[in-house]
C-alpha cells in the first residue's frame, strides 16, 4: 500500500469557509476517484507552534493507483480551484505502508 501525505500552509487571511470547502471537496474524492482506498483531511488543531495549516492523508493500492489519482480530472479540479489560488507552501511524501 502507498500512503500520500501532504501538509499545506495558507496565507493568514485564508477564510475558514475556504478551508471547510477544501476539506469537503477532498473528502468527496474517494467517491469520485476509484483508486483512493482511504482519505482523511483537515485543519491543524494548533497544538504545536510551527505546524502546517492543513493536511491530507490518502492511501492507494500501489504507485499506479497514485498516478491514476494524480491524472484524475476531479483531483485536478480541487487543485486548480481550491488549493492553488490559496497556497503558501506544500510539503508531501509518498511512503510504503
Describe this structure in words.
The chain is built from three helices and four strands; from the N terminus they run E-H-E-E-H-H-E. The chain is of the alpha+beta class and 97 residues long. A four-stranded antiparallel sheet has the order 2-3-1-4, covered by helices on one side. It is 38% helix and 32% strand. Helix 1 (16-32) packs antiparallel against helix 3. The longest helix has 17 residues, at 16-32. The protein has one domain: Alpha-Beta Plaits, CATH 3.30.70. The mean pLDDT is 97.
- Terminal Cα span: 5 Å
Using only C-alpha atoms, the radius of gyration works out to: 13 Å
CATH topology: Alpha-Beta Plaits
- The CATH C-level name is Alpha Beta
Most strands sheet: 4 strands, antiparallel
- The CATH architecture category equals 2-Layer Sandwich
Query: Structural class per helix/strand content?
Result: alpha+beta
Residues in helix, %: 25-40%
Numbering strands along the chain, what is their spatial order in the largest sheet?
2-3-1-4
- Tally of DSSP helical segments: 3
Query: How many strands?
Result: 4
- Integer count of domains: 1
Poorly predicted regions are none
Order of helices and strands: EHEEHHE
Q: Give the mean pLDDT.
A: 97
> Into which percentage range does the β-strand content fall?
25-35%
Shape: globular
